[in-house]
Amino acid sequence: MDSGIAFHFGPLTVRWYGIMIATGVLMGYIVAYYRTKSRGQDPEHISNILVYSIIAAIIGARSYYVLFSFNNYRGNLQEVFAIWHGGLAIHGGIIGALIALIAYTYYKKLDFWYWADLLVPSLILGQAIGRWGNFFNQEAFGYPTKLPWAIYIPPAKRPLGYLAFTHFHPTFLYESIWDIIGFVLLIVLARYQLKQGKLLPAGSILFAYGVYYSSGRFWIEGLRTDSLYLGPLRAAQVISVLIVIVSVALYFYRRREVNKE
Question: What is the pTM of this model?
Fold first, then answer.
């Protein structure tokens, strides 16, 4: 039996991957909804942003993955749309969601930086939960290891060159734990931001997320066996470095602009 299948409902096959992604989205929505209400903002914006961001994130995540691994789909183009088989790159999803948020806040004449700060704790929480979809799909694991928490991977799921090994780094677990810790830190930082507007201007929580998540992802990506590559470099590590640089630069730019006012 396919371990990725949760249950069948008539002709419909419900997969654990989808359940975990949906759970992550729901928990993120709940957190964003109550944070928005506590700030005296209209929570209807959260529902609207959620719809647009989900669509944009799925398109971005799949497009990013297919772009960097197109040779795997060249002879089987219908597989490009089979997202239930895995193959959603989080960096592509983040880019897609950010584009949707920029477009929505521009259209509604809202402060993008303010709303980004409201939403990024929900994003990293959703990532922490959604990562468990990789567990059920038996993907996104790392190199072989004999550590006590190593995960068993059946032969059919092992990458070429590692068929003789049985247990591997559960890198999806590492990232999930890293994201949960990040969620707590961002919530604490957001509360501090309310008292330190000059030190932490709008956008600071977004930038903190960029630095924190990317730092962990850079390390975790180095353990994985299924990385997407940009030439000889791991694409996720390149993107992570760029995100850290841009986040730090934008933080100091935003802080300087706010202090001028």
Answer: 0.92
